[in-house]
Amino acid sequence: MLEIIKKKFIINILLIVSIVSISILSIHWHHQMYLLHKNEKIVKSNHERINALNRQLMMEYSELESGITIYQKSKEELLMFVPIETEEISI
Fold first, then answer.
1. DSSP at 84
2. Does the pLDDT of residue 46 top 70, yes or no?
3. Closest C-alpha among 2, 86, 21 to residue 10
4. Torsion sign across C-alpha atoms 22, 28, 29, 31
5. What is the DSSP string of 2-33?
6. For residues 18 and 62, which has the higher predicted lDDT (pLDDT)?
7. Residue 53 contacts residue 47 (beta carbons within 8 Å)
8. Separation of alpha carbons 84 and 29, rounded Å
9. Torsion sign across C-alpha atoms 35, 36, 39, 41
10. Helix (H, G, I), strand (E, B) or coil at 43
């Protein structure tokens, strides 16, 4: 009889220890997932900010390039030059 009570006591202690350890690991895992989600949000917002800046710079660069090509084409093909002197028109 004493052996059966002793075995039950040992089994109960092992079950309690395993449940507590699994609970602690679950809490730790949840905390790690929270930190990962927080870092993911920060990285995502930084990535969106960088993409927006990149798109803005690409638009400005293309506008600049198109202006330069139009200016060069007008000078070379159409032989248009900036006037040397501006004449004032008097009314």
1. S
2. yes
3. 2
4. positive
5. HHHHHHHHHHHHHHHHHHHHHHHHHHHHHHHH
6. 18
7. no
8. 75
9. negative
10. helix
Which two three-digit tokens encode residue 1? 């009889």
Cβ–Cβ under 8 Å, residues 41 and 35: no
Q: Which residue has the tokens 């008097």?
A: 90
pTM, 2 dp: 0.55
Whose tokens are 């090509």? That residue is 69
Structure token pair of residue 23: 């609970």
SS3 74: helix
Token pair 């200016």 is at which residue?
Answer: 71
Q: Is the pLDDT confidence value at 87 over 70?
A: no
